[in-house]
Write a structure and sequence with these properties.
With 154 residues, the chain is α+β, with helices and mostly antiparallel strands. Helices cover 39% and strands 19% of the residues. Helix 3 (43-52) runs parallel beside helix 5 (104-112). It is elongated and about 60 Å long.
Length: 154
């Protein structure tokens, strides 16, 4: 079917599927979510990227509110998770459970890998004010993606 398909998209899909069935999934040679790409994202897109990583089932009954102060950008954002949805708005909130401040690179790392919070705080790259267990809870709500996933085989 791949060799007979007239459209290039269908041809590629069929031939990729056939190759995977014969040889197994092809390991990814690059990642579009490299540190350079993530650190280069505007802050609002960085939060959108974090939203994609939420595990919907685990977030239904969780309520979190964290203020992120990007010291090198001179901006503060409020991230809230309610009813399984992450929202981020520019500005401070009135009663955040946790306030985090630091440069954008450190906050991006903390946002995508909250388990690194203690290391970043110990290295004085970020400052945590409030209930630090919020980050542990947030860490249980996000997922990591396997870039070498199979396309057609189960």
């Amino acid at each position: 079917m791949g060799y007979q398909a007239e459209g290039p998209q269908w041809r590629y899909i069929y031939l990729t599927a056939a190759k995977e069935l014969r040889q197994g999934p092809t390991p990814a040679t690059f990642s579009t979510a490299s540190p350079d790409t993530i650190f280069g994202m505007p802050i609002e897109i960085l939060f959108d990227f974090a939203t994609v990583h939420l595990i919907g089932d685990k977030n239904a009954d969780v309520t979190l509110q964290v203020d992120f102060a990007f010291t090198d950008q001179e901006e503060t954002w409020t991230m809230s998770i309610r009813h399984g949805v992450l929202n981020a708005r520019r500005g401070r909130s009135h009663n955040p459970q946790l306030a985090v401040s630091g440069p954008k690179a450190a906050l991006a790392s903390l946002l995508l890998r909250p388990a690194t919070a203690a290391q970043l705080a110990e290295a004085k790259q970020v400052t945590l004010t409030g209930d630090e267990s919020v980050l542990a809870t947030y860490g249980t709500l996000i997922d990591t993606f396997d870039t070498d996933f199979p396309i057609v085989s189960p």
